[in-house]
Amino acid sequence: MNLITFIDYAGTFVFAISGVLAGVERKFDLFGVFILGFVTAVGGGTLRDMLIGGTPVGWMKNEIYVYIIMAALPTCYVIKNTILELKKSFFLFDTIGIGLFTVLGIQKTLSFGLSPLIAVMMGVVSAVFGGVIRDVLSTQVPLIFRKEIYAFACLAGGVLYLVCDYFYTENFAIIVSILTVIVIRILAIRYKWSVPYNP
Amino acid sequence: MNLITFIDYAGTFVFAISGVLAGVERKFDLFGVFILGFVTAVGGGTLRDMLIGGTPVGWMKNEIYVYIIMAALPTCYVIKNTILELKKSFFLFDTIGIGLFTVLGIQKTLSFGLSPLIAVMMGVVSAVFGGVIRDVLSTQVPLIFRKEIYAFACLAGGVLYLVCDYFYTENFAIIVSILTVIVIRILAIRYKWSVPYNP
Amino acid sequence: MNLITFIDYAGTFVFAISGVLAGVERKFDLFGVFILGFVTAVGGGTLRDMLIGGTPVGWMKNEIYVYIIMAALPTCYVIKNTILELKKSFFLFDTIGIGLFTVLGIQKTLSFGLSPLIAVMMGVVSAVFGGVIRDVLSTQVPLIFRKEIYAFACLAGGVLYLVCDYFYTENFAIIVSILTVIVIRILAIRYKWSVPYNP
Known about the structure:
Chain A is globular and about 50 Å long. Chain A has one domain (3-190). In chain A, helix 1 (3-25) crosses helix 3 (64-78) and helix 2 (30-52) runs antiparallel to helix 5 (116-137). The first copy, chain A, contains seven helices and no strands. Helices cover 74% and strands 0% of the residues of chain A. Chain A has helices spanning 3-25, 30-52, 64-78, 87-111, 116-137, 150-167, 170-190. The N and C termini of chain A lie far apart (49 Å). The first copy, chain A, has 199 residues and is mostly helical. At the A-B interface, helix 2 and helix 3 of A face helix 2 and helix 5 of B.
């Protein structure tokens, strides 16, 4: 298992845990929290694959994602008392995860012969729409439409990935892209950046 | 028309009626109740087909489902005064329906070369996500995420279908699977089973 | 650029502006208003393409739609003070737009070898489901399920398109269809038509 695969799985796992915890907050039953963990973890990539069309969505052909999400359920039981202490590790994997999901979404979209603009859009969709679907299924206005700016972090990371991949190497591009997402997100939280739109 | 086709159509019809009635409760107009009847009846199978990808979703290639759902609209007018008396028949067809939809969803997914695990998941999606989409379109938290346990009835029925189909015959597997769903659902309602998740 | 393309683009632009304004009302940030503009403009066609399956959805292969929707963001800034004066032009393009989207949806569906009934349904989906997705993403009950009757205007326009296309010419059918949608929608608003369903 190389580093990219590890980050992919770790990101999926952390996303699933955050979805499960959202379900617990909403007092869902076991089925409800599993579905919420599932859509949070793979909902963005699933929407991307459905938009691109033509084949089964990614996790159908690679069951490991299903097992990772299932593993989030007992894990939340075990770590329930230490969840606050784990918050920093979670934030780290979550942020590395959205960076990587953006890159993987871009690569997959380009592999279908679609344009760089569409690829960057699908990268952002891969990274953030899991959370949108989670919120819609809980009948809450998607958080990312109001406060979180990590869609812009993904956008910046995605554009830099394309530029660096064009001029340098893929691995360098992936590192730059993920670091960009991490830095923007941390700065955004520290300095309370927001991107309002008030015409 | 063989028995499976009859149950499929009857299940679709009963699902559509339950969707139409949900729309009436929410004071939707004719278009709204039709859409709600439609997604309740075929939404689960539609989502399954969109996830599997590659071809138009099932009801597009077999208009009979559209006609069955249309027929639910005048039917609700006719039976409005006897709907309470019909409740038991409805419950029966609804439950047989989700059992059969689970099996049909599994069979369709396997026919695309996907794994038994994914097939069982798609069986459950076929059976229960029509109701999820109905609730989301009405901006209500999906009922099945909190109370109803029939997702687990479908899961049990789906697993037993695969086991019995492997060791015995398909027809036997279908009967066992549907009976399992019916029995679990009736017991769950009688004994108020629930599957909470409180870490 | 012929007349059909012009109406298509103008309709997309007006839909996007209405989505952006809906996002502003809900106090969404820049990302949120863009997504709401996007789904309002192309959500119906996107759902249609996902239901038909097999290829990337339309706007992925023709970036002009993405640029048109992006252009709605600065436009809303510029016109913010004159938006009420522009209301009539907007209504006109919006209504011509849903008429044309119905026709384009029908044509695309027929080109996949699907039946006229399914084609008319997909025409209506193309025209009105962008608004449904917009409302669901804002956790509001879709407006069109309760009040607006323009789904029926699209239905009438769609059926007339098929009839006129069969007996006369395509261009004549398009004109009749769009005029039908416009006339029904204007009459519906003036005389407060509604299509209740109260069994």
